[in-house]
Amino acid sequence: MPTxxxxxxxxxxxxxxxxxxxxxxxxxxxxxxxxxxxxxxxxTSVSAGVASSIKAPPFPSxxxxxxxxxxxxxxxxxxxxxxDTNRKMLESHSGKDAGKLLLRAxxxxxxxxxxGQIVGKTPLLLVLAPGKYxxxxxxxxxxxxxxxxxxxxxxxxxxxxxxxxLYPGRVTAQR
Length: 175
Description:
This protein has helices spanning 3-44, 46-53, 64-70, 82-92; strands spanning 99-106, 110-114, 117-121, 124-128, 131-139, 144-151, 156-162.
């Protein structure tokens, strides 16, 4: 390779990064200056001063019961849990001929639903009016169990419901 070609190639390779650095610094400097000018103009303009002096109107306060009745969104309940309310309602209608129902589940802890309303977790002792009840229990891992109970006047009954898996716990593939 001739020496004049090497020198020209060497000068071009050194010159290219220097030119690139100069262009990059100039572009970055103009961007930074442009941002500083825009920020200064926004802070000192009349519209910025007027906008900063305007306060937002206060949020209207509504009574707690009115907000729950008119809001289409879910609201947090401040009362007792629904299972307590449902259980107390069932027990208050039990009357003088009430029977006792002890509910258990296998496995141990499950939610109890009586006639479609949640009433608590197992084990649970309920004082109920004589009659027919549809009992459903739901376990923490998707197990379910149902039972129909006919409670007689002044009867004490224990009901244990075996919960079945909704989905199999183990899956095997066959070829």
